[in-house]
Amino acid sequence: MRWLRAVLLSPVIARPGYWFATASGFVWGAILSRFRISRQGGVIVARGMPTWAFGRGGTTIGAVYLTSTTVSDSVLEHEAVHRAQWRRYGLAFVPLYVMAGQNPLANRFEIEAGLKKGGYV
């Protein structure tokens, strides 16, 4: 199974997944935010989204942070870590994140991004 992990996490495989996720997040965010898009804190921010269009206070898909109003320097730092995680894992990030659990206090990706910066503690 190590070879499978090496293949899936290879930049040749992961990077196009990250690009696809970013493009998808950008289209979703642009349309639903009515093109309120900006670059802030290392991510592309789509603000003013309807709350049903993302999880919790906001969700990062690839390099795009989808949110309604949750934008602060600390949250953007937290989301920039998620962007780096997307870049490293590509589309494999989705099942990896789900397997890490829905409790942010125990989810290794949320812990790595910073629980305090993400507003979890």
List the helices and strands and how they pair.
Layout: H1 2-8, H2 11-32, E1 37-40, E2 43-46, E3 58-61, E4 64-67, H3 73-89, H4 93-100, H5 108-113
Parallel strand pairs: 2-4
Antiparallel strand pairs: 1-2, 3-4
Descriptive overview:
The chain is built from five helices and four strands. The chain is an alpha+beta fold. The model has no long low-confidence stretch (mean pLDDT 94). The longest helix has 22 residues, at 11-32. Helix 2 (11-32) packs across helix 3 (73-89). It has a four-stranded mixed beta sheet, with helices on both faces. The relative contact order is 0.16. A hairpin with a 2-residue loop joins strand 1 (37-40) and strand 2 (43-46). The protein is globular, with a radius of gyration of 14 Å. The chain has one domain (2-113). It has helices at 2-8, 11-32, 73-89, 93-100, 108-113; strands spanning 37-40, 43-46, 58-61, 64-67.
